[in-house]
Write a sequence for this structure.
């Protein structure tokens, strides 16, 4: 799985909002706090607003804040808001992929990949990451010696 810059920046901005305890935070402050390009971040924040993850207020006292508590926003929700489905095959959902002959079971592999992504990304919330208190399953996966080996 490749994490796009959009998803990475969105998560970093939302984690900054999660740490703000519901206070409005200006886009410029979010960009500065996470060393993100402001123009790109503003486009991402628009998508997050449309997806119902943040609200914004204009003006001198304006800014952004989360629409709901950080323990109700999963990493999967953010990735879907910025990039669409967690797993796709040539831009389509895995269940729509059709294979024949020797490749007929490839769809089963893509479905399993999606399930694995969901198990991780739907189990972790912004509150988990912001607090450093990740779910036990995530900690266990990270402790696997093979997890840190690049291939």
């Amino acid at each position: 799985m490749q994490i796009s810059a959009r998803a990475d920046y969105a998560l970093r901005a939302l984690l900054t909002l999660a740490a703000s305890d519901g206070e409005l935070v200006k886009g410029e402050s979010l960009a500065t706090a996470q060393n993100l390009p402001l123009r790109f971040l503003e486009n991402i924040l628009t998508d997050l607003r449309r997806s119902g993850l943040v609200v914004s207020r204009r003006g001198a006292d304006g800014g952004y804040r989360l629409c709901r508590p950080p323990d109700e926003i999963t990493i999967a929700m953010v990735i879907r808001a910025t990039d669409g489905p967690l797993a796709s095959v040539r831009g389509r959902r895995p269940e729509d992929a059709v294979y024949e002959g020797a490749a007929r079971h490839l769809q089963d592999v893509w479905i399993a990949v999606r399930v694995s992504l969901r198990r991780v990304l739907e189990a972790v919330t912004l509150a988990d990451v912001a607090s450093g208190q990740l779910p036990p399953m995530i900690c266990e996966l990270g402790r696997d010696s093979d997890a840190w080996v690049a291939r």
Summary: The CA atoms of residues 2 and 86 lie 10 Å apart. Residues 106-121 form the longest helix (16 residues). Helices lie at 5-18, 27-34, 38-50, 75-83, 106-121, 126-131, 136-143. The chain is about 50% helix and 5% strand.
